[in-house]
What we know:
It is a single chain. By secondary structure, this protein is α/β, with parallel strands linked by helices. The chain has a domain at about 1-180 and about 235-265: NAD(P)-binding Rossmann-like Domain (Rossmann fold, 3-Layer(aba) Sandwich). It has eleven helices and 14 strands. It has helices at about 10-20, 40-50, 60-70, 85-90, 95-115, 150-165, 200-210, 235-250, 270-280, 305-310, 320-330, and strands at about 1-5, 25-30, 55, 75-80, 120-125, 170-175, 180, 215-220, 230, 235, 255-260, 265-270, 285-290, 300. The protein has a seven-stranded parallel sheet with strand order 3-2-1-4-5-6-11, sandwiched between helices. Strand 5, helix 6 and strand 6 (about 170-175) form a beta-alpha-beta unit. The longest helix has 22 residues, at about 95-115. It is globular, with a radius of gyration of 19 Å.
Amino acid sequence: xxxxxxxxxxxxxxxxxxxxxxxxxxxxxxxxxxxxxxxxxxxxxxxxxxxxxxxxxxxxxxxxxxxxxxxxxxxxxxxxxxxxxxxxxxxxxxxxxxxxxxxxxxxxxxxxxxxxxxxxxxxxxxxxxxxxxxxxxxxxxxxxxxxxxxxxxxxxxxxxxxxxxxxxxxxxxxxxxxxxxxxxxxxxxxxxxxxxxxxxxxxxxxxxxxxxxxxxxxxxxxxxxxxxxxxxxxxxxxxxxxxxxxxxxxxxxxxxxxxxxxxxxxxxxxxxxxxxxxxxxxxxxxxxxxxxxxxxxxxxxxxxxxxxxxxxxxxxxxxxxxxxxxxxxxxxxxx
Length: 335
């Protein structure tokens, strides 16, 4: 297939591009490089031996999308582009709505204008808000949201579902990610946030590497076994492979379909610190701070629908996640 991947130099996007290329697909990466780097493309070539086409641009730029899509022959779009920090979204809600919702609407409009109706959308478990039951299945209630980031994901899902009802030509996969961590086993690509990391594992990795003094644990009074937040952490390579399975599925069906992508197991912040210390042989000092706005106590997935319908399930365990994350950090200490 000929695929257009927005946000393809980002963390999840780059790992998915690797899997797509290795599966024989033709890939064009579209990214504004706000939270990523152009040298990711060269690293993708080193891993796969194949070079994706790259176009620097923003999904809010309708004229550029029109130009790119005209006569392109794209079979599908995999849409990762967007802002993604929960805490930042609480502080900058308008920026998140403009980018994540406004930009996506522009993308979908230009896709339809160009006759491209197959879409894999990068959603999030944050759409479930503070879950009433665990594990979380796809039929669980959504909308009890605690932050604008999650709302932008849910709004996107609702837009996609409405598009599919209005026009049977749409084939849409809505993939609700839990918490991606780890890196490609080569150590060539991984999570490389600009500035202070917003996500747990890259922060732990930078503390272990001596780049940051200590980790801040937000809340030790959550209703969990050790008082720290519990999340379903999934290896980014497993997550990337889920996109290929979803793409295969929706190519044969119409409408919009939702799948959770997680491991089905929750780990606390303290368990994650201990696992990283085992993998790295380094100590990770931390301090405890008050709970962070927009956070919840616990969240982990029921991914049985993805296993049943897509033939997908996570394969890499917590030790592999931490070992690959440390390999990436160690090999890229200057980044």
